[in-house]
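Entry for the shared binder. Reason: the reviewer on the internal report wants the predicted structure included alongside the sequence.
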Amino acid sequence: MKNISYRILVAALLIGSLMTSCKSAQDVTQLKDKTLDSSQFVNITDVIPDVILEIRYYSTYNFVGARIDGYEEPIALMTKIAADSLKAVSDDLRYHGYCLKIYDAYRPQRGVDHFLRWAQDPNDTITKAYFYPYLTKKQVFDGEYVAEKSGHSRGSTVDLTLVDMKTGKELDMGGTFDWFGPESHPDYGGGNPETLDFVQTDSAFTSVQFYNRMVLRSAMMRHGFLPLDNEWWHFRLDNEPFPDTYFNFPVKMLGK
């Protein structure tokens, strides 16, 4: 009986040791996967309480026409340093009567992969009339409106516009978010973002629309964000803390 009891005890200890070892190995694997680490990110609404969110990729109102993989809640996340810089932008613009409206911020790599699958399906064109009426999907990809890697996945890039605090309406930017075409270029219509000069070359685009784009652009650049040549709404923090890491944890409220 003693031998049997001893064997049972040894077996139990071995099983317990094996389970602990497996759990430890799993924990180590998770720790090594930096793309799943959200500890350096914050909920933007915790930093900028009056920011307006319209997270397009959580909805079906986007160029894919479906909720994008990895968007589990309609919220916006950014790295702490980027969110603090965006708070400075918000404070700056609030003084002039504007508040920020965010369409997208951190985007998991799985969401970018979803974009790529969409781009490779030539038969899926249900949103063409609304977002890319004059382009083929190949041109959308070649024009870098969709790419294999996105600065959004590094956590310090944001897509946004401005809202007039008196009227509650978005400023007229002369084009909508995620419109794929030259109309989305900051200098479209004869404007020079460097000098702020405007010489109208398209009767459908006005000096007021150019000025509104420049109000957003100038404020973002004053607080460390860099613009993109082909999207007036897109800005990346210059000194982003994770320039080589493409995160993949889901978009959902942190701290739950």
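Summary line for the report: The mean pLDDT is 89.
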